[in-house]
Amino acid sequence: MNPENDLIISQRLAKNFQRNFRERLIEFGLLCSGLIAIFITLAIVYVLVSEAIPFFQHVSIIDFLTDTVWTPNYSIKHYGILPLISGTLTTTGIALIVAVPLGTITAIYLSEFASHKVREIIKPILELLVGVPTVVFGYFALMLVTPMLQKIYPDLTTFNMLGPGIVMGIMIVPYIASVAEDSMRAVPMSMREGAYAMGATRFQTAIRVITPAAISGIVAAYILAISRAVGETMIVAIAAGQQPNFTFNPVESAATITSYIVSVALGDLEHGGIGYQSIFAAGLTLLIMTLLINILGHAVRKKYAERY
Amino acid sequence: MVKKIITNKLKHDEIIKAESKNLNFFYADGTQALNGVSLPVYENKITALIGPSGCGKSTFLRCFNRMHDLYPGNRYDGQIILQPDNTNILLTDVDPIEVRMRISMVFQKPNPFPKSIYENVAYGLRVRGESKKRTLDEKVEEALKGASLWNEVKDRLQDLAFNLSGGQQQRLCIARALATEPEIMLFDEPTSALDPIATMNIEELMSELKQKLSILIVTHNMQQAARISDYTAYMYLGKLIEFDATNKIFTNPSKKETEDYITGKFG
Ligand SMILES: Nc1ncnc2c1ncn2[C@@H]1O[C@H](COP(=O)(O)OP(=O)(O)OP(=O)(O)O)[C@@H](O)[C@H]1O
Ligand SMILES: [Mg+2]
Fold first, then answer.
1. Are A100 and A29 within one domain?
2. Whole-number pLDDT of residue A21
3. Do B113 and A194 touch (CB under 8 A)?
4. What is the reported pLDDT for B8?
5. pLDDT band at residue A121, thresholds of 50, 70 and 90?
6. Probe target for ligand 1 pocket from B20, B23, B31, B187, with the most ligand atoms within 8 Å of CB
7. Residues A143, A241: one domain?
8. Which residues of chain B have a CB within 8 Å of the CB of A188?
9. Segments making up each domain of chain B, as ranges
10. B2-262 adopts what CATH topology?
11. Which domain holds residue A45?
12. If you average pLDDT over residues B108-119, what whole number do you get?
């Protein structure tokens, strides 16, 4: 064997080793950051469950799920989560009624109709909306939207679910619009050309071809919006009244899971008391609700996986 | 009737279905992709466009259904006269949608819509406002038969179009274009993504289709042009170099450039 050749090969091997080592290091780094996210999630679940267990030793799960009164901090204590769930679902529902059509139409407009210039103006404005602190939205609901609604419907109480629900809807419009728009713009141009070549108008192309092609991303946008609405705290805490109330009537006041947690957590609570533990039971309920929404969303997305 | 008389009288002459006259085309960035192209498209004939990559074949083809209108800044200059109307379809007051309803297009890559097989074919009819189930059923069947796809899909019309093979998808796109009974069909390298058997199917199909309509096809495959077309145009750098009957172009071209390209000395 030629010694010169040998040298070259071993050099190359050394280089390979170096490269492999670098690759491994990067891989390890990526794995670590992934693990951190998983670890934090598990830690949250652990805290929620371990604090909720003593609560459920005191309150039966049946009562928790069927009792329609929630008064853990009153002298006559009831631990029925249903009022908080009804408040959460009602405000979320109102928000979606506002946000889904507005967000979808905005996305369709931005992706299929707006000129480059118009898009460059509208998108930053929408993103600005995302940056507004939710406390501001809360007072917006309380001081502006509810009084306006009272002009139309004088019997509306100061604290109600309708006002904060609508404001929450406005708040999540940009989330839906931006995620849905991204997925519509990702639809290949060849699909659009195919539709136009058939003699379709812009509107027909947008509604009958682009929207179904992007449906998986659009559904993802809705799921994000639902999670955002279910988890929203400040707006409802400020404007919905913090009154656990088992009702789906939007003109009544109510408390949501999150607004209960924040109101109780801000008060003086003895660590380990039943009131304190009830936060974790409520939090666990919220986590399970969000999980269910995500599983449902995943299933829906899989059904409509985008294929073009 | 009138047509028949003319054909009988001028035995060797063809009826012009559409004709580009001194057509120039400029992309938004200023690129001039077509330079004074004048070319007839004869009725019930297949006209093939050949030439090296980037010579402007697709650009030329896409002028016929005003596809360039989709992108701002593109500019046509010159005429494409559509018969029997004798109108220049490039005029801004001619509605491109109107044009696309009469001149349909099949693309290089099959691009079915994310819908069922049935809905893909029905799309053009629905766009035209047709919603009667019976009419739709009839026309969908007719178009799928016309595209030689009916036997393969008649039992699964509600399946998603993406579940078809590449060749079937392309025939579906042809059926989609056929359903609205266009007068001219444009094909941009329709078989370049297909295997030889699927290619053969589509070539046979085109030869049948020309009984009913006029075809303009871009192809990179010289044998294909020789096999299926009646007329061939050779383009180079945005210009039409030579246009003639296909067997003349392939056996005895009058321009040296054409001969060089066809014999593979160039391109
Ligand atoms: N969107 C565009 N903007 C600017 N120039 C373009 C655009 N599309 C094509 N061109 C240019 O126009 C010329 C003609 O392009 P065209 O796509 O018509 O060629 P072609 O003959 O179809 O080529 P191929 O055989 O590779 O498909 C080329 O020089 C190309 O670079
Ligand atoms: Mg091309």
1. no
2. 84
3. yes
4. 40
5. very high
6. B31
7. yes
8. 111
9. 2-262
10. Rossmann fold (3.40.50)
11. 18-58
12. 91
List the beta bridge partners of residue B116: B160
Q: Lowest-pLDDT range, A257-266, B47-56, B60-69, B98-107?
A: A257-266
A131 reaches B (C-beta below 8 A): no
Cβ–Cβ under 8 Å, residues A253 and A240: yes
Residue A117 · residue A109 · CB < 8 Å: no
- The span from the CA of A162 to the CA of A94, in Å, is 7
ipTM here: 0.87
The verdict on A135 and A274 lying in the same domain is yes
* pLDDT reported for residue B257: 86
What's the mean pLDDT in A268-275?
71
Of all residues in chain B, the one with the smallest CA distance to A207 is: B127
- Residue from B57, B189, B216 whose mutation best tests the ligand 1 pocket (most atoms within 8 A of CB): B57
The pLDDT confidence band at residue A302, using thresholds 50, 70 and 90, is confident
Q: Is residue A125 part of a domain?
A: yes
Please answer yes or no on whether B160 and A307 come within 8 Å at the CB atom. yes
A198 in B contact zone (CB under 8 Å): yes
Kindly determine whether residue A198 and residue B97, on different chains, have CB atoms separated by under 8 Å: no
User: Is A186 touching B (CB cutoff 8 A)?
Assistant: no
Shared-domain flag, residues A144 and A34:
no
Residues A238 and A274 grouped into a single domain: yes
Non-local CB neighbours of A255 within 8 Å, separated by 6+ positions: A70, A83, A84, A87, A236, A240, A241, A242, A243, A244, A245, A263
Q: Give me the CATH number covering residue A224.
A: 1.10.3720.10
**Same domain membership, residue A124 and residue A44:** no
Residue A54, domain member (yes or no):
yes
CA of A50 to the centre of ligand 1 (A): 66
Contact by Cβ (8 Å): A79, A70: yes
Position A203 scores a pLDDT of 92
What are the angstrom distances between the C-alpha of A152 and each of A90, A155, A157, A190? 20, 9, 12, 49
Total domains in the fold of chain A:
2
CA distance A133 to B228: 67
Please check whether residues A229 and A265 belong to one and the same domain: yes
Cβ contacts of B166 within 8 Å, gap of 6 or more:
B110, B193, B194, B195, B198
One domain, residues A26 and A137:
no
Mean pLDDT of A93-115: 94
Residue A106 lies in a domain: yes
- Is the model's pTM score more than 0.95? no
Instruction: Please write the tens of the pLDDT for every residue from A255-268.
Output: 899 988 888 877 76
**Residue from the list B97, B107, B112 with its beta carbon closest to the beta carbon of A199:** B97
